[in-house]
Amino acid sequence: MSEKAIYSLVLVLYMGLLIIVGLLTSRKLRNVEDFYIGGRKVGPWVTALSYVAAYFSSAVIIGGGGFGYKYGMATLWIGAANVLFGCTLAWIVLGRRLREFTTRLKTMTVPGFLAERFSAKEARILSAVAIAVFLVVYNVSILKGMGHIFEVLMGMTCAKEDFYLRSAQDYGGKRPREPSLFVSEALDLSPAEIKVLKRSPLATITRHGKANPSPATPIEEELVLLPRGKAVLELSHQKIDDYLICPMKYRYIHVLKVPIRRHHAVIYGYAIHQAIKLYNMNRIAGRKTTIADLKEIFRKAWHTEGFLTRHHEELRFQEGLKALEYFHAHASEDGVIPTYVERHFSFNESSIRIVGIFGRIDVIDGDGTIIDYKTSAVTDEKQAIKRTKESRQLAIYALAYERLFGNTPVRLELRFLTPQVIIGRYEPSEKTIQKALSDIESAATGIRAGRFPADLTYLACTYCPYRSICPAKRSD
Ligand code: SF4
Predict the structure, then answer these.
(1) Among residues 399, 336, 332, which one has the least CA distance to residue 363?
(2) 464 in ligand 1 pocket by Cβ < 6 Å?
(3) Distance 236 CA to ligand 1 centre (A)
(4) Is the CB of 256 under 6 A from ligand 1?
(5) DSSP per-residue string spanning 383-437
(6) Which residue, among 229, 236, 228, has the nearest Cα to 346 in the 3D structure?
């Protein structure tokens, strides 16, 4: 017998059993009380079992199970606390009294009890409405959970008119996707026979593009993904930077979306960034952040990915802790409270939407300073100033600040955690804003036209994450 037939049979037997029990017990019914609450003769075992049956709904089985799978076994404490405190207290404190009251007042429901106990019709209406509203919400989740169970176990779908099956050998992304049961049904194969393939990055590139596409003949199918004519093109400073460093690199990242393993510098920078974000946000909220708090956030945001060896990872981790100590000492001494932290922005330049996040802005006496933290290495202040002056990101942020606040920021700052804090400062001018505008325009024009030639400057290729798969890389 097939799995589907077994599930159907169990369902039919269960429904049949319910009908038989209903028919047999209906002969003993004398009044409404018998029907609803078993004539108040239900013992502790039946009460306990029916309570558990009601409690273990799809919210607990599917929702609780999924929650546990996602966040770990510690989530069991939520259920334990619910049962130990919520249910036990309700039973001990309320159970007996409610039973005595409802028997005396001859009521069967909570709205009925409230109305009789307080001699107020309004209490019945109010509690009935509250129960109806919340039961609808609750039941939606229960029914949805049941739908998922039917879908997974019996291959049933809730599609009413049309049902489309789509299939691909490789959906992209990091992990292979589990094929739907519908695919095995449609192909009349057992699920074990459906194999999920994961293409190599090189195979993906070969499938999507030419080895060295000519700027004059952009690939038509890719252009479908790109905004044409006056359609709004959304760009971040990162996208603009990627395009202006090497258009082919932009194509790998943002058009072909070729996945790459995260570099250890990204892991390190992210963990430091999370700790600094917490510090600055706490500062705005008037809360203190200890160095132990910073290290804890750093530890939690850390991922073991991309490091060369275990020893290399340990060295970087210790370096990060040291950098946070320097940061903490510097920030405590400096004492300035940021005006904005992690503030999102977006503005339009004709049909280009520029989006981004200001890491930190300090506004003192109306003068704004845009600050960004970097974990890349600089040797001294002179180098830090040079990097700040040349930062395309900060120039675009200066333009964003001008568009949003109506004036140019007085200062741009890059704070390098090397691990000591080395600050590069620069006062932006009209030239900075014009340079940002021209960079945006050049990137947008090239992207809209589908021009993605390789820029073979040696430095770009040396640090490019696609170097190992790029057929156009410069290797001298
Ligand atoms: S390896 Fe060089 S040419 Fe290839 S995408 Fe990267 S930067 Fe561009």
Answers:
(1) 336
(2) yes
(3) 20
(4) no
(5) HHHHHHHH-HHHHHHHHHHHHHHSS--SEEEEEEESSSEEEEEE---HHHHHHHH
(6) 236
Residue nearest to atom 2 of ligand 1 (CA): 461
The continuous run of DSSP H or E covering 369 comes out as strand 367-374
Distance 454 CA to ligand 1 centre (A): 6
Q: Which residues pair with 423 in a beta bridge?
A: 415
Indicate which atom in ligand 1 lies nearest the CA of residue 471.
Answer: 4
Other Cβ atoms less than 10 A from the Cβ of 111: the count is: 19
Query: Comparing C-alpha atoms, which of 431, 448, 425, 424 is closest to residue 395?
Result: 431
Between the CA of 246 and the centroid of ligand 1 the distance, in Å, is 6
Contact 384, 422 (CB under 8 A): yes
Number of Cβ within a 10 Å radius of residue 437: 14
Q: Is the CB of 456 under 6 A from ligand 1?
A: yes
**Which ligand 1 atom is nearest residue 460's CA?**
7
> Which residue has the CA at smallest separation from atom 5 of ligand 1?
249
List, for residues 66-100, the tens digit of each pLDDT value. Answer: 777 777 888 888 888 887 888 888 888 888 888 88
Spans of the chain below 70 pLDDT: 58-59, 151-201, 203-230, 475-476
Asked if residues 274 and 295 have their Cβ atoms less than 8 Å apart, the reply is: no
**The residue type at 156:** M
Is the shortest distance between the CB of 254 and ligand 1 below 6 Å?
no
What are phi and psi for residue 373, nearest 5 degrees?
-100, 140
Among 384, 393, 363, 397, smallest CA distance to 426 is for 384
In angstroms, the CA 241 to CA 206 distance is: 25
Q: What local confidence, expressed as pLDDT, does residue 221 receive?
A: 44
- Residue identified by tokens 């922005």 is 345
Pocket lining: 469 vs ligand 1, CB cutoff 6 Å: no
Give per-residue pLDDT as tens, 158-198.
Answer: 666 666 666 665 666 666 666 666 666 666 566 666 666 66
- What residues pair up with 356 in beta bridges, in sequence order? 345
